[in-house]
């Protein structure tokens, strides 16, 4: 692989607690039920669509979003998963260009990149507010391919993510889809969405990928 691109939340960083806390605060404010089962059932990367599916009235989406941002920004519990920094350095040292394609807004993710110390390891970045469309639409991933100069060779790029929408986006863009197991990443659902490989973590996938490339 000439380049490896990653999802951010749930793949490189453990943000489930922060997301759950912020979403639960919003749902409570609107008198709506919310738990992990409800989140899995209604999750989509486009927060507007997800909130509509969860029952937020369309004319109050911005109010809900403002409350979400206020609650999410008040915490510092987003941390890189164990071994992620070391894995990214190993992939970079092996010659791969690295980056993220995330549904998260730039104003939220950039401070997290800096706080986790991953900012210098992920120079290619496409954020959720860069384009009008979201995963599984391939446009965000294609934007990253253009930044890499690999728009004509998407098969030289792997996209690593923890949700079925990540896999569908990778397949639609012509990239290798790599699934990481998580709350959103059930292995069977990841495979059904197009994952060619499944791993328990980015660190585990990196070790296997580098070992295979050395053998090959």
Summarize the structure.
With 216 residues, this protein is α/β, with parallel strands linked by helices. It has 2 domains: 3-14 and 78-215, 3-Layer(aba) Sandwich (Rossmann fold), CATH 3.40.50.1000; 16-73, DNA polymerase, domain 1 (Orthogonal Bundle), CATH 1.10.150. The protein has 10 helices and 8 strands.
Which descriptors would you attach to this protein?
single chain; 216 residues; alpha/beta; Rossmann fold; DNA polymerase, domain 1; 2 domains; 6-stranded parallel sheet; two-stranded antiparallel ribbon; 13% strand; globular
Q: Could you describe the 3D structure shown?
A:
This protein folds into 2 domains: 3-14 and 78-215, HAD superfamily/HAD-like (Rossmann fold, 3-Layer(aba) Sandwich), CATH 3.40.50; 16-73, DNA polymerase, domain 1. Helix content is 48%, strand content 13%. It is built from 10 helices and 8 strands. It has a 6-stranded parallel β-sheet with strand order 5-4-1-6-7-8. Strands 2-3 form a two-stranded antiparallel sheet. The radius of gyration is 17 Å and the shape is globular.
CATH architecture of the largest domain, by name, is 3-Layer(aba) Sandwich
Class based on secondary structure composition and strand pairing: alpha/beta
Helix content: 40-55%
Question: In what order do the strands lie side by side in the largest sheet?
Answer: 5-4-1-6-7-8
Number of domains: 2
Task: Tally the helices.
Answer: 10
- Unreliable parts: none
Ends apart, CA distance between termini: 12 Å
Q: How would you spell out the order of helices and strands? A: EEHHHHEHEHEHEHEHEH
CATH superfamily of the largest domain: HAD superfamily/HAD-like
Q: Regarding CATH, which class of the largest domain?
A: Alpha Beta
């Amino acid at each position: 692989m000439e380049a490896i691109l990653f999802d951010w939340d749930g793949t490189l960083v453990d943000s489930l607690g922060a997301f759950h806390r912020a979403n639960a605060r919003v749902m409570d404010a609107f008198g709506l039920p919310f738990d992990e089962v409800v989140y899995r059932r209604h999750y989509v990367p486009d927060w507007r669509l997800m909130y509509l599916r969860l029952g937020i009235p369309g004319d109050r989406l911005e109010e809900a979003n403002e409350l979400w941002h206020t609650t999410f920004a008040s915490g510092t519990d987003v941390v890189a998963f164990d071994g992620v920094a070391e894995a990214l350095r190993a992939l970079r040292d092996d010659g791969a260009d690295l980056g993220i394609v995330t549904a998260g807004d730039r104003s939220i993710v950039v401070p997290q990149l800096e706080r986790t110390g991953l900012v210098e390891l992920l120079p290619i970045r496409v954020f959720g507010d860069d384009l009008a469309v979201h995963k599984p639409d391939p446009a965000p991933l294609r934007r990253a391919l253009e930044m890499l100069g690999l728009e004509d060779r998407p098969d030289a790029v792997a996209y690593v993510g923890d949700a079925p929408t990540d896999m569908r986006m990778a397949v639609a863009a012509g990239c290798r889809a790599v699934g990481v197991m998580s709350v959103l990443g059930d292995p069977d659902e990841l495979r059904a969405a197009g994952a060619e490989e499944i791993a328990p973590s980015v660190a585990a996938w990196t070790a296997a990928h580098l070992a295979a490339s050395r053998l090959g």
